[in-house]
Structures are given as structure tokens and as C-alpha cells.
Specification:
- The complex is a heterodimer of chains A (108) and B (115).
- With 108 residues, chain A is an all-beta fold.
- Helices cover 0% and strands 56% of the residues of chain A.
- Chain A has no helices and 11 strands.
- In chain A, strands 2, 4, 5, 9, 10 and 11 form a 6-stranded mixed beta sheet that branches. Chain A has a 5-stranded antiparallel beta sheet with strand order 1-3-8-7-6, with no helix packed on it.
- By secondary structure, chain B is an all-beta fold.
- Helix content of chain B is 0%, strand content 55%.
- The chains are: A mainly beta (108), B mainly beta (115).
- At the A-B interface, strand 4, strand 5, strand 9 and strand 10 of A face strand 4, strand 5, strand 9 and strand 10 of B.
Chain lengths: 108, 115
């Protein structure tokens, strides 16, 4: 079983739409949680950390459910520039586990 | 003042050759990693070094060897390259003291093509 499971998509949504990504993780002792963004032919970059109480950064909202071992990312009012692959990342000790990524294309 | 830098960015080489990829971080992090991203885009951990000690070594072929001259550098050496080694290799770094967990910062990647 993979450490982190994500729906690979692809998600194709019109500009202005709201889109949600989900992932689950297997290690209940995991300590930190993140969403990364990876553009084509670029390195992954941190989009936002995910806190137990949920957190928001502009149009992006991340939530964590430790009991269900479930992480989500909500993007509101999608922009063309949001098109990328979104990676769910879980840290357990000194190791980072990546999901396979969810591909998002925002269509004009 | 790039935080994590790796060289070269592109590497095209023939089967059977030996090559190295260099990585340096100026973030003062104590842990560095090498990841392989294949054509399916999955990021797989290969190695990590914490304070010059190898702490994780996933099941990669022993043709791959990490070398860390100091905690700011983690180079990847690959012997007898094979076609299946073609991928993008990312270096990353992070800090960990058991309680304060920072995110991982990535280099720009090295696109290795074995012909």
C-alpha cells in the first residue's frame, strides 16, 4: 500500500470554478502535512502547509482530518495560472512521502 | 542566491558511462535528499543524509551512491548507466530536530537521458 494516495485526475475546469483535491495517508504517526505544486518541467514548490485546525491562504483552503487520515485542498475562483500538478505530501520523521499528484488544467 | 542548486540541469550520456550530479544547499538544513521522478511523474525517495550519516536508503541499485563531503552538499554518483535510469533527479533539503518540521526545498532538477 502506498504511503500517500491521490486521485491523479486529470481535472479540467473552467476559469472561476471551485475544485477540490483529496488524499489519504497510511501512517497514523505522520507529523506534518503539505500541498506542493509542480509546474511542467519544474521542481515541486510548497503551496501551503496543512494544519490540524485547517488553514486558508487567499483562494486556497487546506484541511486535515487526522482521525480519517485525510487531507484536502480547495481552490476557489480558479485562474489559468493554477494549471499545474498538485502533490499531497506527508512527513513522518525525517522522511517525506509524496502522492502521485493530481493534474489540474483551468480552461478559459 | 539559490537555496538548493544542482548541476548539471541536463545530462545526456551513453549506456555504461559513469556520471555524477552535484547538489548544494545554503539554507543551513541538516538533511538532504535525492528523489527520482520517472515518466509517470511519481517522486520516489532514493537517499537521504542527516549530518553526513545515511539514514534512509530505499531499494535502489547499488550503482547509485550518494556522497556527502559536508552537510551542505549531497552528490549523486551513478555507475554503469542503463536506459532505465533516464529520469529527472531532484535534490532537496530540510531541517529536522524531531519537533520542528519544516518543508522540503527542491533543486531545479537534473534531466538525465541515457542513450
Amino acid at each position: 500500500r502506498k504511503e500517500v494516495e491521490q486521485d491523479p485526475g486529470p481535472f479540467n475546469v473552467p476559469e472561476g470554478a471551485t475544485v477540490a483535491f483529496n488524499c489519504t495517508y497510511s501512517n497514523s504517526a505522520s507529523q506534518s502535512f503539505f500541498w506542493y505544486r509542480q509546474d511542467c518541467r519544474k521542481e515541486p514548490k510548497l503551496l501551503m502547509s496543512v494544519y490540524s485546525s485547517g488553514n486558508e491562504d487567499g483562494r486556497f483552503t487546506a484541511q486535515l482530518n487526522r482521525a480519517s487520515q485525510y487531507i484536502s485542498l480547495l481552490i476557489r475562483d480558479s485562474k489559468l495560472s493554477d494549471s499545474a500538478t498538485y502533490l499531497c505530501v506527508v512527513r513522518s520523521g525525517n522522511q517525506f512521502y509524496f502522492g502521485t499528484g493530481t493534474s489540474l488544467t483551468v480552461i478559459p | 542566491d539559490t537555496a538548493v542548486s544542482q548541476t548539471p540541469k541536463y545530462l545526456v550520456t551513453q549506456m555504461g558511462n559513469d556520471k555524477s550530479i552535484k547538489c548544494e544547499q545554503n539554507l543551513g538544513h541538516d538533511t538532504m535528499y535525492w528523489y527520482k521522478q520517472d515518466s509517470k511523474k511519481f517522486l520516489k525517495i532514493m537517499f537521504s543524509y542527516n549530518n553526513k550519516e545515511l539514514i534512509i536508503n530505499e531499494t535502489v541499485p547499488n550503482r547509485f551512491s550518494p556522497k556527502s563531503p559536508d552537510k551542505a552538499h549531497l552528490n549523486l554518483h551513478i555507475n554503469s548507466l542503463e536506459l532505465g535510469d533516464s529520469a529527472v533527479y531532484f535534490c532537496a533539503s530540510s531541517y529536522w530536530d524531531g519537533s520542528l518540521n519544516t518543508e522540503a526545498f527542491f533543486g531545479q532538477g537534473t534531466r538525465l537521458t541515457v542513450v
